[in-house]
Design a protein that fits this description.
Helix 6 runs antiparallel to helix 7. This protein is an alpha/beta fold. The strands form seven sheets. A seven-stranded mixed beta sheet has the order 7-6-5-2-1-8-20. The chain has a five-stranded parallel beta sheet with strand order 10-17-11-12-13. Strands 14-15-16 form a three-stranded antiparallel beta sheet, with no helix packed on it. Helices cover 34% and strands 23% of the residues. The protein is built from 13 helices and 24 strands. The protein binds flavin-adenine dinucleotide (FAD). Flavin-adenine dinucleotide binds next to helix 1, strand 2, helix 3, strand 5 and helix 8.
């Protein structure tokens, strides 16, 4: 290793990791060219996922390949390593890297950026780990799409009423962004798809939301949240408010309101917690188990460590005493300040504070349906859906992806959306194995 150059290691290539890399590629252009700075980014995946497009990918409005940005193409000046960071020993300025294949190895650094995001926050509910699926990755979104469509196939082909009822019952737990958008987009897709299934009527499908509080979509405020709830009810979706999932052993859903029914699909989107890497190392954590971070996006009490996004507890300067919510709006903006602060740190200049007032949000609720509350402007239905699409199109990284997403949407104006299940992709060797077994 060249000891004369400064080595920056970014742990995680999602929003914070990729946008910090982009910023550093620009601000440290000279240093990267003359070799006085090297940057390495580590992530198990070779792409950044634009999570707000996952519901549309699940519904078949956007191709899954178009909701990701390839890290090696976007960050040509940065070395990308695929695998995961298993431990950070900051005192020694060293982390343990586990490549996809091969032995783990130690990597030394001068500056570390913790950008490992979050994972689903689950509860010890009987049956949950076996019966449910999360909704945070492209893999989960596409597996869910395939599953929902395969269940329509199963119901159409079955005579047994119990089999049909179970197949056509879909449950989503958690009424935030991810849960509501996934529920609304998938329900919209099945409404379209059933025209190809003569024996399935709209009333045969049961979509249920289980939400522990008395409101949904807090990101768009109480008024728009209430409006969204009314819209979903009008579409035939059951909203179980102030209700908890108690058990889901073998797909038998038991809820705290005393209801009990079978469901072949349970999607868990009830909150997130910091990625588990935070537990393996010597960086300080806050009371919620995230990396304790200052307003300048440095890790509290240590030198040469920075953190932002879902993995970090960043104080919200616009609401003293509170933390920034884990969302992309903060993650992207934090990454810019973080990149600039690393540059300032290396050049011995003062760092600046991160301060951003949450401006509200937009959410898609299916084709031509949406809700928005941005800078106090509240929109419903088609205008909100249009705003949701234009906003996210402007935000999805790289011109290449923008054009591809636009092409997907344009095609869907002329052709009905694809409603075929390619569940076989998840078991590509089954047929060959059966043939080989004779
Ligand atoms: C379905 C869905 C819809 C959403 N919609 C919106 C929206 O409309 N608006 C909004 O503002 N926010 C939205 N969000 C939230 C937003 O996507 C997240 O807040 C944002 O992705 C956080 O960025 P991040 O960089 O902290 O984490 P991520 O983008 O999740 O990136 C973390 C990266 O770290 C990697 N990683 C994890 N552990 C390790 C390890 N040990 N070693 C190396 N790498 C590791 C992961 O593979 C991942 O690539 C949505 C989220 C979901 C799931």
């Amino acid at each position: 290793m060249d000891r004369t150059s400064k080595h920056i290691v970014i742990v995680g290539g999602g929003y914070v990791g990729m946008y910090t890399g982009l910023r550093l590629q620009r601000t440290l252009r000279r240093e990267l060219r003359n070799g006085s700075v090297r940057i390495t980014l580590i992530d198990p995946q070779s792409y950044m996922t634009y999570q707000p497009f996952l519901p549309e990918a699940a519904a078949g409005s956007i191709s899954p390949r178009h909701v990701v940005a390839p890290l090696r193409r976007v960050l040509p000046k940065i070395r990308i390593l695929n695998g995961k960071v298993a431990k950070v020993n900051h005192e020694q300025r060293e982390l343990t890297f586990e490549p996809i294949v091969g032995e783990p190895r130690e990597i030394g650094y001068d500056v570390v950026v913790m950008a490992a995001g979050s994972v689903s926050r689950t509860l010890p509910i009987p049956g949950l780990a076996d019966a449910a699926i999360g909704f945070k990755s492209v893999g989960e979104a596409i597996a869910l799409r395939n599953r929902v469509l395969a269940l329509l196939d199963r119901a159409e082909s079955a005579d047994d009423e119990d089999v049909r009822r179970r197949a056509l019952t879909f449950v989503v737990v958690g009424g935030g962004f991810a849960g509501i958008e996934a529920l609304a987009e998938l329900q919209d897709m099945t409404d379209d798809a059933i025209s190809y299934y003569p024996s399935i009527k709209k009333g045969d499908l049961r979509w249920v939301l289980i939400e522990a509080t008395d409101r949904i979509l807090p990101e768009v405020g109480p008024e728009m949240g209430t409006w969204t709830a009314e819209q979903l009810r009008e579409r035939g979706i059951e909203l179980k408010m102030s209700t908890r999932l108690n058990s889901v052993v073998g797909g038998q859903v038991e809820t705290s309101d005393g209801d009990s029914f079978e469901a072949a699909t349970v999607v868990w989107t009830a909150g997130v917690k910091a990625a588990p890497i935070v537990l393996s190392g010597d960086l300080p954590l806050d009371e919620r188990g995230r990396i304790k971070t200052t307003t300048q996006l440095t890790v509290s009490g240590v030198e040469g460590a920075f953190a932002a996004g879902d993995v970090a507890g960043v104080p919200d300067l616009t609401h003293p005493g509170e933390y920034c919510a884990p969302n992309a709006q903060h993650a992207v903006r934090q990454a810019k300040v973080l990149g600039d602060n690393i540059t300032a740190y290396l050049r011995g200049r003062p760092l600046r504070d991160y301060k951003h007032k949450y401006v509200g949000s937009v959410a898609g609720l299916g084709l031509h349906k949406g809700v928005a509350n941005v800078y106090g402007v509240k929109l419903r239905g088609w205008p909100a859906w249009f705003m949701h699409r234009t906003y996210h199109l402007s935000r999805v990284p790289t011109t290449n992806r923008k054009v591809r997403v636009m092409a997907d949407w344009t095609l869907s104006l002329f052709f009905r959306r694809e409603t075929v299940s390619l569940g076989e992709i998840e078991h590509p060797r089954d047929q060959f194995r059966a043939a080989a077994a004779g």
